[in-house]
Structures are given as C-alpha cells and as structure tokens.
Automatic annotation (TrEMBL):
SUPFAM superfamilies: Fibronectin type III, Immunoglobulin
Pfam families: fn3 (PF00041), I-set (PF07679), Ig_3 (PF13927)
Keyword Phosphoprotein: no
Family: Belongs to the immunoglobulin superfamily. DCC family.
Domain of life: Eukaryota
Main location class: membrane
GO CC terms, sorted: membrane
Keywords from the UniProt entry: Developmental protein, Disulfide bond, Glycoprotein, Immunoglobulin domain, Membrane, Repeat, Signal, Transmembrane, Transmembrane helix
Protein name: Protogenin A-like isoform X1
Encoding gene per record: LOC117533261
Membrane topology type: Single-pass membrane protein
Record-annotated Fibronectin type-III domain positions: 412-506, 508-604, 609-703, 715-808, 813-908
Localization (cell): Membrane
C-alpha cells in the first residue's frame, strides 16, 4: 500500500509543478478550438459558421465579412458558443448578399486574434460559356463536341443523343469530366442531335442541340499522316484535384497515342490513367506532377508521328516555413517577428496586431516577411498574427509580444517644442522629466515625415547635459513629427507628446528632364515631367525655357506657368540644330538650369519618311535604363529599322545602335550612377532617316538609405550536422566574431521539411556551442537553424541547414510476394515495399530453391536494387517444386524474410495446360522457413526418414512388377482358350491401362490448349477452379459411357482423390 501512496503523491506533485510551468512555456492565453470553413449553400438555406475560442475569460467574439463587422439581426446573429448563424441565406446583389469572406475575431485581456477566412458561396449555375456546335465528319473519323459552364459547386456534365442519355464511356464514345464528348470511328448511326446536361445542387441546364452529319468515306480509304486535331492545353490545377489532358488524333491507318514528359521523367502510373482513346487524367495531383506533358500520335509500323504538348502548373495553398515566436522585450527595445511561407502562386504576407492590419510606418517596419518594432512602448504589448495568402487559401500563425517595464523609470520629457530654422533644419527643445530626472543618462530624438505611409523613422541619441537639438538633414517644404524618450540604466521613459513642424521652401535642386520631338520640319514639341518633391523643394511656380540655334549666340526665352508640362516651338528653320534648356522656380527663386539639349529639325522635303517615335525612358537601377517606344499613330510611312543614340551629358555622341523594325524596347546598360544621359531615337526607311525623338534621363544612386537602427548581433555560423543514428542528430556551430563578457544563449530550431503544423516545431535551448537533438523520426529530412541571445537582443536565424536522419533497418518483410511461371523454365517474382513508413530499402534479397535443395538447406541467392520490385528466376528444372522468399535490406541491416511462396514447374507441358500459376502456402511456409536453419540432429532425422521412404518405394515397385507378370501370363492363357473371351480381356486390359494412366498422372499446372481461347478484352471459354483451369473432356465422357457403372464410380472416386493428394507432395511417404 505504501508504494501506491508514494506514486500518487508523485503524480500530484508533478501536476502542481508542471501545470504552471506549461502555462509559461506555451502561449495559450487565446487560441481557436474551431474555425470557420468554406461552405456552399442553397438560397434560403440555414448556415452555421463555426467559431470557438479558448483562453482566459471573458472572451468576446465578433464576426467580420469582407473585413467589415457583421451587423446582427433576426436573420443573422451570433450563437452562445461564438458561431455565426444565418437562418436564410440571401443572394441579392451588392452588399445585401450573404456571399463573401467571413472571419471571427476573438478578444480577451491579452489581445485579439483573427480566424482563418471562410468563403460562403451560394449554389448557382450561370449561362453556358461554350455550347456544342454542329459538325460534319466522314465515316470512320472522329467527332468532338464541347460544353463548358461556370457553376458552384462544379456541375456533373452528361450528354444526350436524340434526347436519350449517352453512357459516360463505351468502346467508341468517351465523356470527359471537363464536358467534352468524343466519338471515335464515327458510324452512320451516330448521325443525329447532341446536347449536354449540366447538373448541380442548385439547378439543371440543357445546352442547345448540335447536329452531327456523317458523310461517306472515300473507297478505298486514302492513307493519311497522323494529325492531332485537339491537343492538350496548358492548365493550372489545385493540389489534390484532377487534371485532364485531352488528345485526339486522326489518320489512316488509325494512329497510336502515347504520353511522355518533356523532362524525361517517368509518368506516375499510380495516379495516372488513360481515359478513352488517348486522354490523360491525373488524379490527386501533387507538386511532382507539374511539368510539360507530350502527346504523340504515331502511325503504326512507321516513324511518322506528330507531337503536341502542354504544361501542368500545380497550384498549392500557402504553408508556413518559418513561424513567428512569442517575445518578451523591455520598453524602448526592438522586437523582430519572422514569417516565411511557400505556395503557388507565391503567398503575400500580411501582419495583424490584435486583429487589425499593421502598416509599415514609423516604429513599425516590414522587410519582406519580417516585422520589426522599434522603440517598444507599453501599447505594443499585443498578439501579432502573420497571414500568408494566395488565391488557393490562407494560413495564419500568431505570437505575443510582452513588454516589460521598470518600476522606477523616469517620466516622459515635457513641453516639447519645434522651431523652423531653414529649409532643411528644425530646432527641437524640451524640459526634463518631472520624476527621476536625476537618473536620466541620455535622450533619444525621433522624427519622421508626417504625411504618407511607409515613412522611415530616424533616431538621434544625445547626452543628458542638454535639452535642445537641431535636426539639420530634413527635406525642404515638408511636415515632420517629433518626440523624445528619456533613458536610464534600467530602461526608458514613455514617449513624449508628438509635435509637428514644417521646413521652409527652397529653390529647386534640379531642372526637369526634356523630351524633344518634331511634328513637322518647322516645329519642336518640348515636354517634361514634373519634378518630384525631393527635387522641387516646394511648389514649382514657373518654368523658363531657353533655345537657340547651334550657329547663333542669341538666346530666346519663354516663361511658362508651373502647371504646364509641354510647349510647342513653331516657325523654326528646317534641317537646323537647335539647343534647348529649362529651369524651374519656387517662391524662393530660380533653381539650377539644365544643360543644353540638341535637336535637329527635319528636312523640308516631300519624301515620306517615318514620323518621330513616342519614346519613354525608365531607369531600372543605378547603371541601367530601359528605352521603350512606339510609332506615332499619324505615321503612314514604312519603317525598315531604328537608330538609337545615347551619351552622357556634356560628352560627345556615340555611333548609333541599329535595331530591327519589330523592336520596341532596348536596355541600355553599363552606365554610371547619378549621371544624366541624352537619348535619341529615329526610324528610317529606303527614303532616308525619319524625325527624331530626343530625351534626357538621370540614373539613380547605388548607395542604399542608411539604416539608423541599432543592428542586432550576427547569427551563429559554420553550422555542422552529423547523423548519429536513425533518431538523433549532432549539431555544432561557431560563435560570431564579436567580443562580449555577457552570457550567450542559443536557440536551436528543428522541424521536418514541409511541416505545416507550427505546434510541432522543436525549440531547444543551450549555452554550449553544440547539441545532440534526440527523438527524431528515421529517414526524415529536417531543417535546422540557430540564433543567439545576448543582453535582451536576439540575432537573426542562421541560414537554414538541411539534413536527413539515418534510416532504420527494415522490421517487416516485403509484402504481396507473388511468383508466376511465364515460360517453361522461367518464373517472375514480384513484391511490394515493406508496409512501414520512413524506411529506405537499398536492395532486396531473393532466396529460391527446389524441394530437394530446400531440404538440404541450399538456397540460390539473387539481389536487386531497392527501386526494383521484381526478378526473373531462370533455368528452373521441370518437374520440380520451388520455394521462394524475399527480404528487404539497407545500410543499417537486413529485414526478415517474407512467407515462403511455392511454385511448381511441370515435367510435361504438352497437355495444353497453363503453366502460369503460383501458390503461396502459409501452412507449408511455417516449417519451410525453419528448415533454412537446420541443426545436425534434425538433419540426421530427416536422412533416416528419407532412407526408410526409399526402401518402401523399392518394395512397392517390386510388388507391382511381380503382379504385372502374372497378369500378362493370365491374359495369354485366356487368349488361347478362345476368341469369345478376347473382348472381355481387351476391355479389362483397357480398363487397367486407364487406371494405370490415372495412377501415374501428376497434379500439374495446366497450360492453354489449342481448344481454348482468350480474346483481347479478357473473355475466355476456360473454366478455372481453386486448383487451376478445368480441361473440357467431351471425348472422355463418351469413352467412359461405354463402361459399367462400377467403372464410373471408380473413376469419380479417383477424380475426387486427386486434389487431396496435392498437399501431400511436400510430405512424401
């Protein structure tokens, strides 16, 4: 009794200690037990969208439809468990329809979380998008009708011929699930009217009727090369759905259709089948099924063929590769959440804070799939969710940020003020905190643009000896927002109040870039793009356009209002080079003028030359510009090609690039960053060069925007992995090159590749630079990543390293072992892989032996690679019984052998019986496996038994010979006594001969005789029972009929005894 009480106390102590710890280690303050799923409903039907949240009470559940709160009423309301009930689904137009995406939002004191999205669809059938059309075909060819409709849920499509339903598949007619009707070998009786019927739970629709007209084929039929009349089409198929590739061909003789992959990979025979006369259908499609498939139509017996191909794209819903982790951070610290997903198409990542979308602005930054929160404040304590979404679905993962605050932190700085100093500087001033001001060691000034989204927040740290600071790197004519934070050794204060201030305008930093074209020999169309805010430094109030000829020094000037972006210069001289430049102004004054840009006006001629192309230049990066153009709609002249000129401003013009008439884009590379380039394009024909288009463009800078955030520590590197066993892996890594006297801890993340359940990710903590990860699955590919933690900072994850655990030795034998005699001395052994997951097989071992060799323990050995599941047993001896068994092996060891399968090879195959028969006898297998490991005593006993049996056989043979001599003597004597008794003696001799034949007959595996047949579709007149085919015996019945009834009884008794003697062949007496 005492041990029982001790165990009870141990369990109670375990619960008391473990339960509080589990609450700390696992984030379980709020999560969903049930989430809504997609549903399709009939109109006026009741629908329930499940939602059940678990966590600390009270929990408030709300519902959103397309991101907007659902207004409850008598028809739509929330149940007590949080689910949404719609008593009658409505399908009205606009916002009154109940169709849409629904989400439930659960909230308690820790925060709020969103459920996955569920789509409510009302069952419907729309109008036909494709209907069958009437066709006329020749007799013996192929006919095809198509039918397509959009419906929810998808329709079942059937066909009618003259208003009578057609079967889905016959020898000549095939109905594809996609709605296509195919008729091969068209006959005159196929002529008539066809229509398709579409049905789902919503309704049924009938298409219009289309007639099929059959015309006589020419006699004799003319030979035709194979031609694919309907080939496969590129399709995108969702994961686990079915893909159908249609292929129809015609020709004389009728072509043979075959399928292959363009990448030479084998087609998955387990998920793929041919439907009808050449259509390929792939069921339960998986990512490995994606690729290019080729349908080949070949004329039998020739090399004439044609090919048509199509690509299958497998669409996959998002699955998370890396999940955000819950974090604990101090005030004014930095939190980083990582979320990576994969899917087809590529998923989009969206972040939510307590159910509301997070925008990249100020302290919140989103870099690709990462969410970074700088200068953490108490209001950032919340639940954050990462949503990966594509058109195939969405997946959510959540993590919590806990903000830790010091009790004796200073209060926020007071009375913050901002004064504009210039177009790029603002003076910021503040008062010291009211409480604990003596503990302040530094201030941080934060500022960012006040307008727009995705603005970068900047931070400047200054000492505690001043409360004034000038920010002098601002942009002119911009509004900014500022706040200040006070720091102490144990943490930071709250943010001060925000203050807004704007900088003054300044003169434009740069002039606009000009684009010049001519519409006639006496004008120039001047256009330009408005300056961006960074360059205008205020509102542009005016432009000044200057121009002159290259031969004159007199400059003409025009002032244009700031709203204009183009101007036409008229009454110019033909075939003259003009120089033009422009300058912009704000209320402060004029900016810098652009460099002179040259343009030649066209010649004054009646010849028809191409008009100036419409040129557009776009900087792709700091060294590349993309030029795009198109001919003017007013151009009527022919074009033989284009000439493209470009050079850096103030540099000489280079030789032109010759481009084809079909070209409309060109990428100009190898340029210098932050330079202005002049680009000229013109078209030409046999008359001469056409009007030119001139434009200037500036390349961008290659220097990235400086990151003023405190960088995190670098991640560990040189990660080394080695598999110790089938369930453990050893990891070793190097510490990054930085010096620190503080303790460094490491987190190791481990999960199988492709894992979709975030709760199964394994996180292990250690302060060493190595770790043995245990309890892994054998022969499974895992991904590992490591990060370090120091002084409340965490490094990014190291690059992911992939490694597979070693496989286990097989513990089960191969399954479904079969042996089939395919020739007189050759048998085929086939089997399936062992029925155990995550076990690799490198090779198979096949043991086989005749009965005599098996009794002696002598087996013949064959080995095959692990990818092969069949083998040939050759040079088998007639009249022998063979035993076969198979085992699976890998580098870790050998598995057990399968049960022994028995095969009989006949001595005489002339009787017409089928030799292709294998038998697996589980009763005989039990002891046959044991004979493979015989000891000396057992072998002696077997030898003595065999000798006794041989002696008995010799004695029996001697007795039979003696009796035979006596019968011959009696028969000779009876013959001499008279001819009257000769018939009786002959009958007796015949009966004896028949009996002797029956006694000596062997139980054999029959082969097909010439009297039997098997047609091409599997039909046969052969009768098969449990022992094999039954031989028809009409002649024998007539022969036996002339005998007495006793002979019949003896014959029947003999036939009954023969099957019973079959198992005894393993135990000869």
């Amino acid at each position: 009794m005492a041990p029982v009480k001790g165990k009870l106390y141990q369990r109670l102590l375990f619960l008391v200690v473990f339960l509080p710890i589990s609450g700390v280690l696992c984030f379980s303050e709020l999560f969903f037990i049930k989430e809504p799923h997609d549903v399709t409903a009939m109109r006026k039907e009741a629908v329930i969208l499940d939602c059940q949240a678990h966590g600390e009470s009270p929990i408030d559940v709300r519902w959103l439809k397309n991101g907007v709160k659902v207004l409850e009423n008598d028809r739509v309301y929330r149940l007590s468990n949080g689910s949404l009930f719609i008593s009658e689904v409505e399908s009205r137009r606009g916002d009154k329809s109940d169709e849409g995406l629904y989400q439930c939002l659960a909230q308690n004191k820790y925060g709020a979380i969103l459920s996955q999205k569920a789509r409510l669809t009302i069952a419907s059938i729309s109008a036909f998008t494709i209907q069958p059309t009437s066709i006329a075909v020749t007799e013996g060819s192929v006919a095809r009708f198509a039918c397509k409709i959009s419906a929810h849920p998808p329709c079942i499509i059937t066909w009618e011929f003259n208003r009578v339903s057609l079967p889905l598949a016959t020898e000549r007619i095939t109905v594809l699930p996609s709605g296509v009707l195919q008729i091969h070998g068209v006959q005159r009786k196929d002529a008539g009217n066809y229509r398709c019927i579409t049905t789902n739970i919503a309704s049924r629709r009938r298409s219009i009727e289309a007639s099929l007209t059959v015309t006589p084929a020419p006699r004799p039929p003319l030979p035709q090369r194979p031609r694919i009349i309907v080939g496969p089409q590129n399709i995108s198929v969702s994961l686990h759905q079915n893909a159908i590739l249609e292929c129809m061909a015609t020709g004389n003789p009728r072509p043979i259709l075959s399928w292959s992959r363009a990448d030479s990979k084998s087609i998955d025979v387990y998920s793929t089948k041919v439907l009808g006369n050449g259509n390929l259908i792939i069921t339960d499609i998986k990512p490995q099924h994606g690729g290019v498939y080729m349908c080949r139509a070949t004329t039998p017996g020739t090399r004439n063929f044609t090919v048509s191909s199509a690509n299958i794209t497998v669409l996959a819903p998002p699955s998370l590769v890396e999940w955000p982790e819950s974090l604990t951070r101090p005030r004014a610290g930095t939190a980083r959440f990582v979320c990576q997903a994969e899917g087809v198409p590529t998923p989009q990542i969206t972040w939510f804070k307590n159910g509301e979308k997070v925008h990249s602005n100020g302290r919140f930054k989103m870099y690709n799939s990462k969410l970074v929160i700088n200068q953490i404040i108490p209001e950032d304590d919340a639940i954050y969710q990462c949503q990966a979404e594509n058109e195939q679905g969405s997946v959510l993962s959540m993590a919590r940020l806990i903000v830790v605050m010091s009790e004796d932190r200073p209060s926020a700085p007071r009375n913050i003020r901002a004064d504009t100093v210039s177009s790029s500087a603002i003076l910021l001033a503040w008062d010291r905190p009211q409480f604990n001001a003596d503990k302040v060691i530094a201030y941080s000034v934060h500022y960012m643009k006040a307008e727009g989204l995705n603005n970068e927040e900047y931070q400047v740290v200054i000492g505690n000896d001043t409360t004034r600071y000038i920010i002098d790197d601002l942009e002119p004519a911009r509004n900014y927002t500022f706040y200040v934070v006070a720091y102490m050794p144990m943490g930071a204060s709250r943010m001060s109040d925000n203050v807004f201030q704007h900088t003054l305008e300044d003169v434009p930093l740069r002039a606009p870039e000009l684009s010049l074209t001519s519409r006639s020999p006496m004008d120039i169309q001047v256009s330009w793009q408005p300056l961006p805010d960074k360059l205008s430094r205020g509102r542009v109030s005016a432009y000044r356009l200057s121009y002159r000829t290259s031969a004159e020094s007199t400059v003409s000037q025009l002032e244009l209002p700031g709203e204009k972006t183009q101007h036409l210069l008229e009454n110019l001289q033909p075939d003259t080079i003009y120089l033009l430049r422009i300058v912009a102004a704000t209320s402060i004054g004029w900016g810098e003028q652009s460099a002179w840009t040259s343009h030649r006006t066209p010649k004054l001629s009646s010849a028809r030359v191409p008009m100036a192309p419409e040129l557009h230049l776009e900087p792709l990066n700091c060294t590349t510009i993309l030029a795009r153009w198109q001919l003017s709609p007013r151009n009527s002249a022919s074009v033989q090609g284009y000439r493209l000129f470009y050079h850096e401003e103030s540099q000489s013009e280079r030789a032109p690039l010759q481009l084809r008439a079909l070209d409309n884009t060109y990428t100009i590379g190898g340029l210098d960053p932050r330079k202005k380039y002049h680009v000229k394009l013109l078209a030409y024909n046999f008359v001469g060069e056409g009007y030119q288009a001139d434009q200037t463009v500036s390349t961008t800078g290659c220097v990235s925007v400086r990151d003023r955030l405190v960088p995190p520590p670098p991640p560990p590197h040189n990660v080394y992995i080695k598999s110790n066993s089938s369930s453990s892996v050893f990891l070793r890594w190097s510490r990054p090159a930085f010096t620190s006297s503080q303790t460094i801890n490491y987190t190791v993340r481990c999960n199988p590749v492709g894992l979709q359940n975030a709760s199964l990710v394994l996180y292990l903590q250690t302060n060493e630079q190595n770790l043995l990860v245990r309890n892994l699955e054998p022969n499974t590919k895992y991904e590992f990543a490591i990060r370090l933690h120091i002084d409340q900072l965490s490094s990014p994850w190291s690059p992911v390293v992939y490694h597979s655990t070693l496989p286990d030795a097989p513990t089960l034998p191969p399954s479904n072992v079969k042996v089939t005699l395919i020739e007189e001395d050759t048998a085929l052994v086939s089997w399936k892989n062992p029925d155990e997951p995550n076990v690799a097989v490198t090779h198979y071992t096949i043991l086989y032996a005749s009965r005599n060799a098996w009794l002696a323990g002598e087996w013949q050995v064959l080995q095959r690679e692990g990818t092969i599941t069949m083998a040939l047993l050759e040079k088998l001896k007639p009249g022998q019984i063979y035993f076969v068994k198979v085992s699976a092996s890998n580098n870790m060891g050998d598995g057990p052998f399968s049960l022994t399968v028995e095969l009989k090879v006949l001595a005489d195959l002339s009787s017409g019986h089928d030799p292709r028969l294998s038998r697996g006898n589980t009763h005989s297998t039990a002891f046959s496996d044991g004979f493979y490991h015989l000891d000396q005593k057992s072998m002696t006993g077997i030898t003595v038994g065999v000798c006794i049996a041989l002696i008995c056989i010799i004695i029996c043979a001697f007795i039979i010979v003696c009796r035979g001599k006596n019968r011959k003597f009696s028969a000779f004597k009876a013959y001499r006594e008279g001819a009257g008794t000769s018939g009786t003696s002959a009958a007796a001799a015949g009966q004896l001969g028949s009996e002797g034949q029956t006694e000596s007959a062997d139980v054999s595996v029959p082969m097909l005789s010439p009297n039997h047949f098997i047609d091409a579709k599997g039909g046969t007149n052969l009768i098969i029972n449990s022992l094999g085919p039954v031989q028809p015996s009409t002649e024998k019945k007539e022969k036996w009929f002339s005998f007495s009834s006793n002979a019949k009884k003896d014959s029947k008794a003999l036939q009954i005894v023969r099957p019973r003697l079959l198992p005894a062949r393993l135990h000869p007496c």
